[in-house]
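Need tokens for this chain, all 308 residues.
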Amino acid sequence: MRSKKNTNSEKRHVSGSPTAVTRHLAWYLGIPLVLLFCIFAPWQRTVNNFFAPYLSLNNAAGSLLADQTMKLRSRSALAEEVEKLRKQNLELIMQNDQNKRFARENRQLRAMLDLPVAPGYDHVACDIVLRDPWMWESGFTINRGSRDGMQEGLAVIAPVPDKSGKAVLLGVIESVNKYSAHVISVLNPEFRISVWLPESGAVGFLNAGTVEKTSSGTAAVGFLPANRTFVLNELIYTTGFEAAIPAGLWLGSLESIAPASLPFGNRLYRHGAMRPAGDLERLRSVIVARIKKTPGTGQTGKADKKAQ
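Here are the structure tokens for all 308 residues:
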């Protein structure tokens, strides 16, 4: 009897352990949840399919009402609406173009602040107002004249320095009116100026010393010493010999150089071609290096009539 009681007590102890209780609870709760999910999922899809047309009815009704309203309007009203929208689009396009122009001018003005100013000069910003289609790269007209202190022979430089911060010479002022001035560029055969090639240590003259025609977009460089060794693409600068043009302005790079003369040729000079540093095709504005007024007199220094 005692052993039987002990066996029953052990069975009751095992069945009443926490592990067994957990299994029973998981079994009793898991089965209803599985059944509930199996029953609810099809009903959810059914409910969604049933109410979907009613939920989209509001959008369909709004679209239909708008279409009917459009049909009820007259042709003249529709035409007026289209014209109104066209004008609004045109105004937005013009406003966008104006914002782009302001942004470009802002970047250009910021770049002008980085331009190095030669001693005795100040900078005057000018816009290009006229160009000759047949001589596009030879010169242009700016919107500054004698009332703004413009003089013949003043240097005209690019509004933005190059990547290394050097100022680029584009040309000089040829003639001046009260409200405008005409500029000849470095590609104009009439523009003659002394140039310096620091790498070879030579001094020459732009658009002088040769009768050979250079390639398009280049200017002739003449009177280069024949006893110097020149390197292609070496930089060319102004010398400062001209009264109204500061020294050290970048003109361009040496595109080509004529071979050295033969011994029996007895030639003292060589000639070459220069590729301008400035982009003369897409210019819209320039900077004029104006000579500062002499203190106490209010007069500016005398500039050469032409840089020769």
